[in-house]
Amino acid sequence: MARRAPRNPWWVLLVVILAGGLLGSVIAEAVVGYPLLGFLAREVRAGVDPAVTLDLRIVSVTFGTIVRLNLAMVLGVVIAVWIYRLL
C-alpha cells in the first residue's frame, strides 16, 4: 500500500501558530488602555537580556534572546490552531 501524504505540511502549522501569536500581540496592544481587559496585555519575559558577547579577536559573536508571552498571544495561538484543525 502506498502512504498517503499528510493533509497539510508541518510548515503550514508553524505559519498558523506565528500568525496567531502576531494577532494576539496586536490584540494585547489594542486593549492595554482598557482597565477591564488590561489583564490580556500583562506579559511575562524570559531570556538573556542584555545580550552576551563573545569576542575571539577574529570574530565577535553575540547571543541573546527574549521570549515575550501574554494571555492574548496564547489565546490567539489556541484559536488559530483550532481553526487550522477545522480546515
Describe, in plain words, how this protein is organized in 3D.
The protein has 87 residues and is an alpha+beta fold. The protein has one domain (10-86). It contains two helices and four strands; from the N terminus they run H-E-E-E-E-H. The protein has helices at 10-31, 71-86, and strands at residues 43-47, 52-55, 60-63, 66-70. The strands form two sheets. Strands 1-4 form a two-stranded antiparallel sheet. Strand 2 (52-55) and strand 3 (60-63) form a beta hairpin. The longest helix has 22 residues, at 10-31.
Amount of beta strand: 15-25%
Find the count of extended strands (DSSP E, 2+ residues): 4
Spatial arrangement of strands, main beta sheet: 1-4
Question: How much helicity do the residues have?
Answer: 40-55%
Low-confidence segments, ≥5 residues, pLDDT <50?
Answer: none
Distance from N terminus to C terminus (CA atoms, Å) equals 26 Å
Q: Please state the average pLDDT score.
A: 88
Number of helices: 2
Shape: flat
Largest sheet descriptor:
2 strands, antiparallel
> Which secondary-structure class do the elements indicate?
alpha+beta
- Radius of gyration in whole Å, from Cα? 19 Å
Number of domains as seen in the coordinates = 1
SSE order, one letter for each helix or strand = HEEEEH
